[in-house]
Amino acid sequence: MDHHPLIDRYLDGLATPAEMEALGRLLASQPEMAAALAAATRTEALLEAHFCEDKAEAAVRATLAASPSPRIVSARVQGRAPARHVGWAAALLFVVAGGALVWWLVRSPAPPPEGVASRSKGSGVEGTWFSEGSRVEVAGDSAAVIPLPDGSRAELAPASAAVLRPEGSGRVVELERGLGTFHAGKGKEFLRIDTPVGTVHGNGADFSVELRPEDEEGDDSMSGRGATLLIVAVLAGQVEVEIGGQRQVLALGQSKTFAGEKPGGGKPASGKAAFGKPAFGGTVVALSANGKTLTLESSPGKKKGEPVRRDFKISEKTHLDYPGLPSDMHKPAVGYIAHVWLEEGSDDAVARVQFSMKHVILTGRVAAVSDDGATLTVELPAKSKGEGPIPTEIKLLPETKRVYKDVEGEKPVVGSWAQVWLRHGSKSTAGAVVFTAKKPEGKVKGPQPEGKVKKPVPASEQKKPDGNKKPGGGKNPAQEKKPGGDKKPTEEKKPGDGKKPPTQKKPPDENAKPQKGNAPVKEIDLTSRPPQPARDPKPLAGAIDREIDRLLAERKVPPSPPADDGEFLRRAFLDLTGRIPTYRQTVTFLADTHPDKRSRLIDSLLESSAFGEHFATVWRHLLAPPDYSAVTKGMQRDTFTPWLADQFNQGHGWDAIVRDMLTASGALKDTPQAAFLMANTESFQPRPERIAGAVASRFWAVQLRCAECHDHPFAHWKKADFWGTAAFFDRLHFTGFKGAAPSLVETTAPELLQRKGKEAPTAKQPRALVKARFLGGAEPSLPQTGAIRPTFAAWATSADNPFFARAAGNRLWAHFFGRGLSNPLDNLDGSTPSHPALLQRLAKDLADSGFELKHLARAIGNSRAYQRTSRPLPGNQADQDAFSHMALKPLAPEALYDALVVATSIDKTEAYRRAGKVKGKQSEAEPAWPTREEFARAFRGAGQGDEAPGIPQMLRLLNGPMLNAGSMLVESMADEDVGIAEGLTRLYLTVLTRKPTEEEIKLLSAYVERRKDVRAGYRGVLWVLLNSGEMALNH
Amino acid sequence: MDRQKEFLPLFLAHQVGIRAFIGSLVRDRHTRDDVFQEVALTLWHEFAHYDPSRSFAAWARGIAANKVLQRWQKDNRQPIPFAPEAITALLDAYDRTEADELLHADALQRCLEQLPERSRQLLSLRYEQSLKLAQVAERLSTTLDAAHKALSRLRLRLQECIEQRLATMSGR
Lengths: 1035, 172
Prior knowledge:
A: 32 helices, B: 8 helices
């Protein structure tokens, strides 16, 4: 037996296209070749299964060792209750890959067949939803992706647990712990996520739901649930969160943290009926002697109506379910909470009932402790005003778990506070008690907003930048060197000193390796005063404000007040450089008392190289969206973005930049600007009609594409216009397939031209019939020999071109304000601008300045309109297009990435080391941080499949090691021991560029204090802040 | 309903073989996992149409082949790696060499135990962590070519070892 070398090359991914072809032929013609490949791939599959199994096994063992919960059984698959519920598929399936083990406990009609009860070979990153009604635990270290019926999808993070439940055509996931990200397809039914804290409903939305123990060292050992925070983040669409009967809508980009009032208690809120899946829910108040009739009483819901009682019939066909209850309690009993699903057509025959228990926690001051320490008297708060506290005796069993926080002597002390978790079913016996010296504050009732989208700094906060100097710069020597990481202030102030090579920015490393290109974010130099701009932005800024204010006055819409310094600082940084300011920059800026500080900031940012890089990223996606697939059309590396960055940073006019792109010729590797033309190729050949369409929409904001096949129905463009433009690119060819360097060439040989002039060489008829002419009709005289594109490019970008300056001005405006003066941005002649005179003025100024984008950016930045807060006033909330308040703009993925890097001020190697240390993993662990490209790619959803995987993937990144790797910031604060209030302030300033409000300090310091290790507390806060909608938006 | 009960043992017993077949056509690990998902789902849905007198594995491979073909046709960014004839030939090859996976797995386990640590490491990088060969080479500070040679040798050696073990086991 021998392997053909081709097979081995194929197996190792080394086969060239030619070799692939040869291999295919051999496979088809020689049976022994096919057999050899079959044998080899079988060995491979066995190897993969073998390795995955090892990993999965370790994960299972770890989970078993770690979890005292009776629900986690040693059999991997366990038949549950003798259900006869027919509708459910009685199968389980493990599907294989990666490093997670999905654990399905399946309710099957019979115990699973022999051999099924063994774990799957391999482990499942992807589990297939075969059996609804399965309980899933994710062990191992990868997420489990579970396709739900109807195209929705759940992705459960490691260590999560959930029950997938069928409910008619609906979809319900009961998240018990951990983190799930969900893609709810649009459908008739909502996707519902039940959690102990509350319920989340989504339809046509992407969102994440996380349960995290409020106190990690808490008492989850007894119940599997400690006090719980529910964190919901919405990445697309909107969801409704329902907690204790209250509903709240979270929209795109928002995230909120809710604290469970009584862990476990809030379970399925009464208002759930609206989504109606369980027919009824309530407390079991009576049970007939034969156990066949169940009387339920609904909790008096939010409408404060009378509680409703109903009787339900249980038969042997009824499926009884007891999630979360120990097995000795698997019997209906009075006091349980029950949700029932009825048989079809019946109003009392129960098909399924789910029993759960309220988790009761009593909190009160310890008034007395018996001598043996086994009985506490706890003063529970009065039920109504005027009454005194109610002393209640609580029994502690030997096995009762006791946790002492800041309580001296590790024993119950009179005067301390006790949080008592009652045992299931008991009114006075504690399963666990947490003793604290101070009154525990974390249990905020009801929804507790954490991440706000609208700028939450109250007006009073604005006055404080000087007064409240605690976090002020320079006082504390240690904090000086901290958040920014390395400082390289000098490098950036040499605009336009000759030609920097276009690859000054690190191109992405092709071969992934651990420490590869995590964007090095240099701190932007704000300290040195940039040179006076050549052109005074004030007149244009004034013109902007006159026009904006005029329309506001006309419509009687009040403008919002100016943004405070923090809001402005963050906005200017994000708009001009795509990143957020560092802590130090923030502190310095807030403390700066110079009246011109905002103008100076804009000047500094415009002079930083980050400006060009940011604008390059933005334009790159517009002009030549990176092709993330393997083939990059002869352009291996992204040289286009660095080229653009260089153009912007050197202050080249937009007209010159565009001309360069339109006339690009030569070897692709030396001609990064050819990317625009090459983005409009088919089968490697530039397509004149596609180029024409792209030029018109990108640079002129004119929609010519429709005129390709018919005269435009609304606009005045005719087919002749379209093909006349396309004709300028007719002579463009891509050469260099055989050995020569791939190049873009414009044919100039006269004989070829002639031939082309007479008859079309291809079937694309219209081309030959239409002579090259400018949009609008003028036919330029073209050189008989030589390139014709320069003639076109000159006209296309000239100040006299009726479209060019307007399109650029409008687009730039939209960059800063979130919407254009005319929309959509690529169809200016299709709609009426909101401020026609202003658009005209922007275009004129742009043209007059030699299409200097920085000039326009500077003027806009200095306008009052730009500097308004994003918080709407009651009178201008509805305003969409008058610019009464700043729009909220989601961060581009690249910007979000850079912002995350700045916010965590993380040093890559350090993070890497620490991630390894913290998790106790071997160095085989993949790098904690994705690269900027990977991040952007995941975010933009460059998947192969039909569903866009971008959002869940990004959530995974967000919730993954990236944000958990720890941060220099946290470490240094903990080392310095700055005190919690100061620590929180620094975290807020670093991440959100603002100080925390008083409530936030109060809430979060309670949270941090309860941690044994402040680091854990800070990290938790950092996590919440980084994941907040406020972080993900530019406001 | 009863038929559905039959599905699972069959599927579990043959899933490695199904993966192997997909692996002969699709090299990218993620894509392969996706295809496998799809195949598993289709098998489940179509199980009613499965003729129990035929080999389950063969039936599953047929479905897998169709899934792979569909995928190739959909993805027009990449050239189609193999012509249908090659796929047919592979299907035939698998049909001829149908194997008991459990025995194979067992044999593999023993064969692996005999390998030196460095060989196991190489296999782990490639098949456990699914690294590309270039990454494997880098991790081991060796050249692409050397890694390729070593891996090719290892695969062959393992395959021979497995055959041998199975032969002695059945001979006994």
